DNA sequence: CGGCCTTACCCCCAAAAGGGGGTTTTTATT
DNA sequence: AATAAAAACCCCCTTTTGGGGGTAAGGCCG
């Protein structure tokens, strides 16, 4: 029997999952939390094999929480269960130690297949996410940490000069990064750049 | 017995709702659809009293779909059930004829209370949304249709001149709108304007 | 019928962004 | 040790934006 814990703030969804897993013969729910804080308190006690983790938690980012869990409990397999099917989110989640990724509109049988696979130490991506990760590279934009930092500052409305002062670089360097970001994302100007950054969850 | 239909692409969530309602004594589920298209085919046949409607449908916006339903079946009470708790979305949903608004992290008992209230012809807002709607006016920004149109074009990266050509106005007029949008949203520049527009779901 | 909001228009000028072309150094990864 | 990528820097010039001022017609509502 696979021990499963769930962290998601959508109470209706956790109830749905709970009964779905309860009806199966391969897994059992050992705990449910509705926030990262609540989960931290009980995780050591629950000792799950698999943790179903939502990215959009109310208190901290699921990305950071996944990292935290894998550091403290490397033996737990994290299976992300979210509404996002953006490349940047999936990639960061896997980089942070997640073993699998399901999107919430997946079928019930994909959830069970995912639980079984990650419990056995395999990596599991649901169909839609699998397709996403295999897309041609030019559609799956990936930025360096510095580029993401700059993108964030730009989206906060700082000018090149202000950014330069804040991170102790030359304004000309910032211009260079900005031009490169426009090029990489194929954006016409800052308005589109910010829109794409948010849509693709790059910031 | 209240007849309830559900439209939501998150299959796990619809299953959770189905069992939640099935366990109650006041309502029964007469149908479930996972897209607007699927719902259109069956709605006349199901004849529900209450329709639980997700805003984030895969095919069309739940906002438009709500309007469509209320035009064709004004006797059905629409209860929005979504992840968004942005003023602009709630307001448009209610303007389009919805009788109530629940966010997905609401408790199970709020869902049942909502179904009961809207079936009785009342308006129902879950606790969090109720607080949101009662906030001071300056926090709940509302734009005229023209302003929203301009905001959309700006976020698509069009310059003042390009917008002027597209909607047959003087570039100076566009400048005026742009300045006013910056003022209304309290944005420093276009980057922040676009970010706020997306975050507050104004476009 | 007098506000008030929306829509639409205009000028001046400074600041910022964008298009084009480059160079160098450090840091991974093979 | 070779190479690739990231990070940092520079100049010229044009277009676009933003800050500051305005004006005025038409609709809505109490």
From TrEMBL, chains A, B:
User: Which positions fall inside the Response regulatory domain?
Assistant: 3-119
User: Keyword annotations for this protein?
Assistant: DNA-binding, Phosphoprotein
What Pfam families does UniProt report for this protein, alphabetically? GerE (PF00196), Response_reg (PF00072)
Q: Does the keyword DNA-binding apply?
A: yes
Q: Which InterPro entries match?
A: CheY-like_superfamily (IPR011006), NreC/VraR/RcsB-like_REC (IPR058245), Sig_transdc_resp-reg_C-effctor (IPR016032), Sig_transdc_resp-reg_receiver (IPR001789), Tscrpt_reg_LuxR_C (IPR000792), WalR-like (IPR039420)
Q: Which residues carry this modification: 4-aspartylphosphate?
A: 54
Q: Give the HTH luxR-type domain ranges.
A: 136-201
User: Which PANTHER family does the entry link to?
Assistant: TWO-COMPONENT RESPONSE REGULATOR
Q: What is this protein called?
A: Response regulator transcription factor
């Amino acid at each position: 029997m696979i021990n499963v814990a769930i962290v998601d703030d959508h109470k209706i969804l956790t109830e749905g999952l709970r009964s779905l897993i309860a009806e199966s013969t391969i897994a059992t729910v050992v705990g449910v939390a509705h926030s990262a804080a609540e989960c931290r308190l009980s995780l050591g006690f629950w000792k799950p094999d698999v943790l179903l983790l939502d990215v959009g938690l109310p208190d901290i980012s699921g990305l950071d929480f996944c990292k935290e869990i894998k550091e403290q409990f490397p033996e737990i397999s994290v299976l992300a269960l979210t509404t996002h099917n953006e490349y940047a989110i999936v990639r960061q989640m896997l980089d942070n130690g997640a073993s699998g990724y399901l999107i919430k509109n997946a079928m019930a049988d994909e959830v069970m297949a995912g639980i079984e696979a990650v419990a056995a130490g395999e990596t599991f991506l649901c169909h839609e996410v699998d397709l996403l990760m295999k897309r041609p590279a030019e559609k799956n934009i990936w930025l360096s940490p510095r580029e993401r930092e700059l993108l964030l500052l730009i989206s906060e409305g700082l000018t090149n000069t202000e950014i330069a002062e804040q991170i102790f670089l030359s304004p000309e360097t910032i211009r260079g990064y900005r031009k490169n970001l426009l090029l990489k994302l194929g954006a016409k100007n800052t308005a589109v750049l910010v829109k794409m950054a948010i849509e693709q969850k790059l910031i």
